[in-house]
Specification:
6 strands; Aconitase, domain 4; three-stranded parallel β-sheet; three-stranded antiparallel β-sheet
């Protein structure tokens, strides 16, 4: 994907009142009409600058996760979009040095979120390092699942005395 992919492209307003299945089926259709039908579970989105800019609609990240996207790596991300994605357990990570020259949708790509590395073909890039608490939240499937897991374990993740 190129630069400036906004939340209106990811979750088109005309379909916001429908089901998540319907909304997801129209994800990025204005840019690439076959996107939703071509995506396979585990795919990674590589994008230029300002991915997820625009409105604060959580459905933009939710549609990508619903389609099976495993991670989003972009030169830069809209802050609210990134937080929404992480809250849903969908890694959205900045990689300012990302160079997409010569990359097509069949280029072998792997991301190691914990190590902060992205491999595209034979090239490697350092990605934004996520703190341990976000890695744990992603591993649990998102913020709500993570909080449920902590609650079930009797932990809150908050340390200190209450006065």
């Amino acid at each position: 994907m190129g630069d400036g992919i906004d939340t209106d492209l990811l979750a088109p307003g005309a379909y916001m009142s429908g089901s998540l299945d319907t909304l997801s089926s129209h994800c990025l259709e204005a840019l690439r009409p076959d996107f939703a039908s071509a995506v396979r579970p585990g795919d990674i989105i590589l994008a230029g600058a300002s991915f997820g800019i625009g409105s604060s609609r959580e459905q933009a990240a939710e549609a990508l996760k619903h389609l099976g996207i495993r991670a989003i790596i972009a030169r830069s991300l809209g802050g609210i979009f990134q937080r929404n994605a992480l809250n849903l357990g969908l890694p959205a990570i900045a990689c300012p040095a990302l160079d997409l020259d010569g990359v097509d949708e069949f280029t072998s790509t792997d991301v190691d979120i914990a190590a902060g590395s992205l491999t595209i073909g034979r090239r490697q890039f350092a990605t934004e390092a996520l703190p341990d608490f976000l890695l744990a939240m992603i591993a649990d499937g998102g913020m709500l699942a993570h909080l449920s897991s902590q609650h079930a374990a009797g932990t809150t993740g908050v340390k200190g005395d209450v006065t």
